[in-house]
Amino acid sequence: MKLLTAAQTREADAATIREEGISSAELMERAAFAFVTWLQVRLSPAADTQVLVLCGPGNNGGDGLAAARLLHQQGYLVQVGLLPADRHSADWEVNRARLPAELPVAEWQPEHFPAISPNTVVVDALFGTGLSRPLEGTAAALVQHLNAAQARVVSIDVPSGLFADAPQPVGSAVVKARYTVGFELPKLALLLPQNAEFVGRWHVVPIGLSPRYLADVPASMYLADAALLAGRLPARATFAHKGTFGHALLLAGSRGKVGAAVLAAQACLRGGVGLLTVSVPAVGYAVLQSTVPEAMCLPDDCKTHLTNLPELRPYAAVGMGPGIDQADDTRAVLEELLCTAKAPLVLDADALNLLGANRSLLDLLPPSTILTPHPKEFERLTEPAQHDYHRLELLRGFARHYRCYVVLKGAYSCLATPDGQLYFNTTGNPSMATGGSGDVLTGLLTALRADKRLSALDAVLIGLYAHGRAADIAVADTGQAGLVAGDLPRYIGQALQELTTPDSL
Ligand SMILES: NC(=O)C1=CN([C@@H]2O[C@H](COP(=O)(O)OP(=O)(O)OC[C@H]3O[C@@H](n4cnc5c(N)ncnc54)[C@H](O)[C@@H]3O)[C@@H](O)[C@H]2O)[C@@H](O)CC1
Ligand SMILES: Nc1ncnc2c1ncn2[C@@H]1O[C@H](COP(=O)(O)OP(=O)(O)O)[C@@H](O)[C@H]1O
Ligand SMILES: [K+]
């Protein structure tokens, strides 16, 4: 699924109106209906529920007016509060006129905003994608009044005051919603950690925007969801053998962090690799052999950390980083790997920290290497970001410059490709915020890179999706707090199966 900018969303609305021969008010009605349908499922029975709809002067306010009418028709106790304005959009006027006379409507004056009861459900329809500057004056005061009320707020399209796809000054007035319900496609702002306190949980509801426009519009940002990835993992052929799926090498572990090597190895095997060899410091040899018997193990001469690069010829992909620490002779192993590897590489954790501390090594990165930094590791590779949008630009620039695939990990992990596209992963949950989840990802990505049937892009996208999806499946058994990284590998197979090409004509 593509992510559209606010401007492209307006074009998509216009294309839909043109192609379907409907009026913009009809599209607004569709949007309001979709919103109300979503809301009704989550509200208490109609007669017990007070709903306050706060409407701004544009089409977001128009959506709010239409939603107020539809909720009123369903028997909810609805009131409408209007933000005072000199001018309103045409479809706002249409929907203002359609409000039934018995539905209470008041213009909210700044000197005496009515109190908002915490029991009220507030629909925030003040501003949407048409916001052109940060809120000030009455609009900002109303947002502050609403936030102070601590009511349950559901924002239409975006929390009012938040730019849909651009940064804004720190401290701007923005509604703090419990839920944000967007139309058709999420806006970039909903995916960024800095906006979490405003967005709450988000959902999108379909409104039938022009499929032709959505297919043709050029995009540089995508949501990597099931629709994008379904069927991308080829099914296994009847006569497949272990050579079909590649032989991977993992370079992982150091004294006190052998577990990272175990987790990566388990995930690599569950990711479907044909053969796996793990190079660990001598201290990890017995541990690895007993916990992951399916993997071959190459013990390093050094007891505590990696000091030797194995002969690379047998391997279809190499993953390095989980738990390796940052000793100077491990840095030398990384340097030799970068200089000599012919197979695709996956670099994580301390391999990234070593790159950050020895930036000249970055120029040795083979094209199409996969790097998986979390934000702190990414900062060590680049520079501190001023905000999330800046971080995304740094990410895009880094991936382009080094011709690499770079995954900025977090909720909605973002992959930047060598040609500057961004893909936001849609799976995963906060259960993964536990030590070792990243090691599991390294192992899984190394397995998928060893599978020659997959392109580099598909390997990363499938790996990110399946990693998060494994956690989504696992939490049904473990709960969120109870999940540990070691639980994830055994759900990877099920997650991968969901993306496998169906066995049909
Ligand atoms: N027919 C359509 O085009 C559809 C539009 N939709 C809704 O339309 C919304 C976009 O509507 P609009 O483009 O009218 O934009 P908004 O409703 O977001 O607001 C635009 C109005 O606010 C004013 N404004 C912008 N920034 C301001 C600020 N900082 N302080 C005070 N006033 C400010 C603008 O001058 C304009 O009058 C979407 O978010 C969505 O909710 C949906 O109904 C789907 C269909
Ligand atoms: N709140 C969250 N929602 C979804 N995924 C998450 C969340 N928190 C962490 N993750 C995922 O878990 C992994 C954590 O990796 P990392 O930070 O390297 O941890 P570690 O070094 O402990 O293995 C990443 O893939 C990240 O995307
Ligand atoms: K809004």
Automatic annotation (TrEMBL):
Keywords, alphabetical: ATP-binding, Isomerase, Lyase, Metal-binding, Multifunctional enzyme, NAD, NADP, Nucleotide-binding, Potassium
Residue span, YjeF C-terminal domain: 225-499
An individual GO BP term: nicotinamide nucleotide metabolic process
UniProt catalytic activity: (6R)-NADPHX = (6S)-NADPHX; (6S)-NADPHX + ADP = AMP + phosphate + NADPH + H(+); (6R)-NADHX = (6S)-NADHX; (6S)-NADHX + ADP = AMP + phosphate + NADH + H(+)
List of residues binding AMP: 409-413, 438
Positions with a binding annotation for K(+): 60, 124, 160
Cofactor note as given: Binds 1 potassium ion per subunit.
E.C. code: 4.2.1.136, 5.1.99.6
GO molecular function, one term: ADP-dependent NAD(P)H-hydrate dehydratase activity
Residues in YjeF N-terminal domain copies: 9-215
Family: Belongs to the NnrD/CARKD family. Belongs to the NnrE/AIBP family.
Subunit structure: Homotetramer.
Reported function: Bifunctional enzyme that catalyzes the epimerization of the S- and R-forms of NAD(P)HX and the dehydration of the S-form of NAD(P)HX at the expense of ADP, which is converted to AMP. This allows the repair of both epimers of NAD(P)HX, a damaged form of NAD(P)H that is a result of enzymatic or heat-dependent hydration.
Descriptive protein name: Bifunctional NAD(P)H-hydrate repair enzyme
Organism: Solirubrum puertoriconensis
